[in-house]
Write a structure and sequence with these properties.
- The complex is a heterodimer of chains A (484) and B (485).
- Chain A is of the alpha+beta class and 484 residues long.
- Chain A is built from 15 helices and 16 strands.
- Chain A has a 9-stranded mixed beta sheet.
- Chain A has 3 domains: 295 residues, no CATH class; 114 residues, no CATH class; 59 residues, Arc Repressor Mutant, subunit A.
- Chain B is an alpha/beta fold.
- Helix content of chain B is 39%, strand content 13%.
- Chain B is built from 15 helices and 11 strands.
- In chain B, α2 runs antiparallel to α3 and α7 runs antiparallel to α15.
- Classes of the chains: A alpha+beta (484), B alpha/beta (485).
- At the A-B interface, loops of A face α9 of B.
């Protein structure tokens, strides 16, 4: 059967580092980077005899994330030990949460490319400590003569957000991850930088014939280090599972790792080889009792979330749903947009420029909106020049390039490059005369009813003025001249 | 004058009167260690230079007019599972044979503030797993009363050092009886405080929900003084309790008339040494003589304490001891070609057989498919055992029992029979499971070996235990017995 004969079922597990100042169980800094093994102490190194002390800020951030994901916050929650051996885990157990997570039963709305939306269930949010990092003396672990461990990241607080198996395509999975990222950034609990590992994502995926109720056997995919990798890994896995099923084979329940270079998923370990984590309640910490007043306080501290902001942009400024969705997908982009609005009134025009030129340049330069060389008030200044007729929309693109390169204001670029639009009718009329005289054939065509011929003549006038002539005035004068 | 024979409070009086210096006390202790350590083998590490230096510094302070606090300038011993910065801390295990902690346990910090002089680290059963100190990877500590006998365990070195006057007092840890049983075997006072009374920060964990640090002392008054110093809430230990600490010496020299004493019938079982039972009955008679009202009590779930303990403690231990893997510190086996082999070889060679037995027990109890039947069930029964005590304490102020079913046994007698060894903690484990305090005080000799009387109290009511213990001790006078070494 071809791929489209199977229904795809995807669930995601998203790990996000919380941006608290100190680690989850000690006072070491959570700052990214730093010389190896400098952000450590006896507690996060798990030396004999040490004990964890819970950072209350972590609980509050996890509650915030839980509430923003529309979860119910647990009244009683506890930590458990997840036991497994690996050198990046100094105690050889991870303090995590098993049966009583901080938040459960949430859901979020994702935005699909066709403009529709879909509800995805959030099973649970739980807190845990991050592990360290292996540094291999070689390109990969298998080529290395030896490996070293950097424990700076050990004990950085994480939340794991587990979704219901509600996604039906890689695009939906990406849209879900987009929305989760946006929500975490809006609530300011995480930076969500995939390249620094502060946002990580594993995927569970299975196929089933359309109409079948039971889920097919799933595989768990790991090691996707970007949104693109997530989509590619899922697409690959769909093809792989479909061809296994087509050949009458069975999917093996296993963990597979995404090999970015080869563009394939590879088996890591089967269900039989899977760890028995031997979870049990962490005896070094006391259970958490979370009273309603605390939950209410955290709820009140929640900022405007992406969906609300989107609705607000639609309601207040009449933006199309799609535009509002794109702009509010990133908190920083939405802030940029709001900042522009303080200096320029027409929201739709701003949206067009932000979604057009600005995002095009950011994507091409692999830049984040926070690294944008054009300040929002400067972009607003550019749009004001168009509105006033000082420059044409076409020239504005040239001015935008100059602003992007130099960081200067639109006025400055226009002045330096002499790009002010010519709206003086006398000056334009002279050029119109010249062009009409030089192109008798076009004039004849126009008079014979070929309306399109005027386009050519306008183009000639613009060429003569190096694009600076006001197109409205040119059109008007040409028509008057020809219709005379 | 044989300074080493003094109690801590007697030595303190001499310091206050400036009749003796801390340096002299410390030297006297080291002289005693030099004399008897070959026979007793109580220590893993002796910190002579640091101790003498510290004693000098304390003397300078006293000379400068600083007030002499109760434990200031008094030499003492730490069990080798408590971290002292810069001092090797091994848990008597090969796997930590070279581990030097870069930080201090909270109790060590408190002792330092109090001006205590640490003379060394005491031998113990490996990772506190054992009841005879025979599982130590380094030495067999001997009972000062009869060197053919074990000192008890796991804090055997801590108990023996105090009984042999190699320190004025010591600290041990008690997970299932590891302070009280060796205190009983060595004829000293040993107190296991309420869970949460003393910070566990810096105590190398065996079973986190049961471990508690406590004192070994030559008499009850010293015990109260030590409790004053080491007790209290610690932000570094989330399981330590924010409960006010009374002045424990205020419970000394008090009347026990009308005190309600319960005698749990389940603690007087067949197979108990009849001589031990006789000593305990005599002790109970003494309490009655002092005005206490003694009646039979019941703790119906007592028979489950041993199986519950041997599920919960090993389960926690299997996880607590996972960090000893040869990667970062401690013993790493030679010649491993890959990570898994390094783990396996380091742990196989680094741990002794009792520790391995308990890691396997605990791993099994937590394994998927067995968790509910073993670990979870054990937690539920633990709650029943706690409720037994809650109910008993509605009627009684303290409960009284033998500390151990027999006096000290001979080397090799039980070490190859785990069940027999585990049974020597049969009267002490319930106290840890319930989290309540328990104290063992000398109550006589059987065939030249000490017998201990155990008193069990309500949560955070160490005061009443000390009150009863002191009244009994002062009246019966057994604490004056000394071994002939």
């Amino acid at each position: 059967m071809p791929v489209q004969d199977y229904e795809v079922v995807i669930g995601l597990e998203v790990h996000s580092e919380l941006k608290t100042k100190s680690k989850i169980f000690c006072t070491c800094t959570t700052e990214f980077g730093g010389d190896q093994n400098t952000h450590v102490c006896p507690v996060c190194l798990g030396l004999p005899g040490v004990l964890p002390v819970l950072n209350k800020q972590v609980v509050e951030y996890a509650m915030k994330a839980g509430l923003a994901l529309n979860c119910k916050i647990a009244e009683f929650s506890k930590f458990d030990r997840k036991n497994y051996y690996y050198p990046d885990l100094p105690k050889n157990y991870q303090v995590s949460q098993f049966d009583l997570p901080i938040a459960e039963h949430g859901q979020i709305e994702i935005d699909l490319e066709d403009g529709s939306t879909k509800i995805i269930g959030v099973t649970r949010v739980h807190m845990e400590e991050d592990a360290g990092k292996l540094v291999h003396a070689g390109a990969t672990i298998s080529q290395a003569d030896y490996s070293m461990v950097d424990y700076n990241r050990t004990g950085v607080p994480l939340i794991e957000i587990v979704s219901e198996p509600d996604m039906r395509s890689p695009e939906e999975a990406k849209a879900y991850l987009d929305k989760v990222k946006a929500i975490l950034q809006y609530t300011e609990v995480s930076d969500c930088k995939m390249e620094e590992g502060s946002l990580r994502c594993d995927a569970n995926i299975s196929l089933r014939p359309w109409g079948q109720k039971e889920f097919g056997t799933k595989t768990e995919l790991k090691n996707m280090n970007s949104f693109k990798a997530l989509v590619k890994a899922l697409e690959y896995e769909i093809e792989r599972q479909a061809s296994v099923l087509d050949e009458g084979g069975r999917i093996i329940q296993e963990t597979r790792t995404w090999d970015e270079n080869r563009g394939v998923t590879l088996s890591m370990r089967s269900k039989e080889e899977a760890h028995d984590y031997r979870y049990f309640p962490e005896p070094d910490l006391v259970p958490m009792v979370i009273d309603q007043a605390w939950v209410d306080r955290v709820r009140e501290s929640l900022p405007e979330l992406p969906d609300d902001r989107k609705k607000r942009l639609v309601a207040e400024y009449g933006l199309p749903e799609y535009d509002a969705g794109v702009i509010t997908a990133s908190k920083d982009l939405a802030e940029y947009f709001d900042e522009c609005l303080k200096h320029f009134k027409d929201a739709k025009v701003i949206a067009n420029w932000v979604m057009g030129e600005l995002l095009k340049h950011l994507n091409a330069g692999d830049k984040d909106i926070t690294e944008c060389p054009i300040k929002p008030e400067h972009l607003a200044g550019l749009l004001a020049l168009i509105e006033k007729g000082t420059i044409s929309g076409k020239i504005a693109k040239t001015v935008f390039e100059g602003m992007w390169e130099t960081g200067k204001t639109a006025e400055k670029i226009v002045e330096e490059q002499g790009l002010v639009q010519i709206s003086d009718e006398g000056a334009i009329a002279a050029i119109v005369d010249q062009v009409v005289t030089a192109n008798p054939q076009s004039v004849e065509d126009y008079k014979a009813g070929k309306e399109r011929a005027i386009g050519f003549l306008v183009g000639q006038v613009m060429k003569e003025t190096k694009g600076k002539a006001n197109p409205g005035v040119v059109n008007k004068l040409l028509k008057e001249r020809l219709d005379r | 004058m044989s300074l080493h024979k003094l109690t801590a409070h007697e030595a303190h009086e001499l310091l206050v009167k400036k009749e003796v210096s801390s340096y002299e006390l410390t030297e006297a202790v080291f002289k005693r260690i030099d004399e008897v350590e070959d026979k007793v083998k109580a220590f893993v590490t002796i910190t002579r230079e640091a101790a003498l230096e510290k004693a000098k510094a304390v003397d300078d302070k006293i000379k400068a007019g600083e007030q002499v606090k109760p434990l200031m300038g008094i030499p003492m011993v730490l069990k080798d599972n408590m971290c002292a910065q810069g001092v090797k801390t091994t848990c008597s295990s090969k796997i930590l044979h070279n581990f030097v902690p870069p930080y201090n346990a909270t109790v060590v910090e408190k002792l330092q503030e109090a001006g205590a002089i640490v003379v060394g680290k005491a031998n113990m059963d490996e990772f506190a797993m054992g009841s005879s100190t025979e599982t130590s990877a380094f030495a067999q500590t001997r009972n000062p009363w009869n060197t053919d006998c074990v000192p008890g365990g796991s804090s055997g070195g801590s108990a023996a050092s105090v009984a042999a006057d190699q320190g004025f007092y010591s600290l041990g840890s008690d997970t299932g009886g590891s302070i009280r049983q060796p205190a009983s075997f060595c004829g000293v006072v040993g107190l296991k405080p309420t869970y949460g009374r003393v910070s566990r920060y810096g105590l190398i964990a065996f079973a986190s929900s049961l471990d508690q640090i406590g004192p070994f002392a030559k008499d009850v008054e010293d015990c109260a003084q030590i409790m004053n110093v080491i007790s209290g809430h610690d932000f570094r230990d989330s399981t330590s309790a924010d409960v006010p600490v009374p002045d424990y010496t205020s419970f000394l020299n008090q009347d026990i008339k009308g005190l309600r004493v319960g005698i749990p019938k389940e603690y007087f079982v067949d197979g108990m040494d009849p001589e031990v039972e006789k000593s305990i009955r005599q002790a109970i008679a003494k309490l009655e003589e002092l005005g206490a009202v003694c009646e039979e009590a019941t703790l119906p779930h007592t028979e489950y304490a041993l199986p519950v303990y041997y599920l919960i403690a090993p389960a926690e231990a299997s996880s607590n001891l996972a960090r000893y893997d040869g990667v970062r510190y401690g013993y790493r086996a030679e010649g491993a070609e890959d990570l898994l082999t390094m783990y396996k070889k380091s742990r196989s060679e680094g741990f002794g057989s009792e520790v391995k037995r308990r890691i396997m027990l605990g791993t099994y109890a937590l394994s998927s498919g067995y968790y509910d039947a073993y670990y979870l069930k054990a937690l539920k029964v633990r709650t029943l055992i706690k409720q037994d005590f809650d109910q008993a304490f509605e009627k009684f102020d303290v409960l009284v029992s033998p500390t151990a079913p027999s006096p000290a046994f001979r080397f090799g007698e039980k070490v190859d029979d785990p069940i027999q060894m585990y049974l020597s903690d049969i009267f002490t484990m319930s106290v840890n499971l319930a989290g309540i305090p328990g104290i063992s005080i000398p109550c006589g000799l059987v065939n030249g070996l000490p017998v201990g009387l155990q008193l069990m109290g309500k949560h955070f009511d160490e005061g009443t235990l000390l009150k009863v213990a002191h009244a009994f001790e002062q009246s019966a006078g057994y604490y004056r017995n000394k071994p002939n070494l």
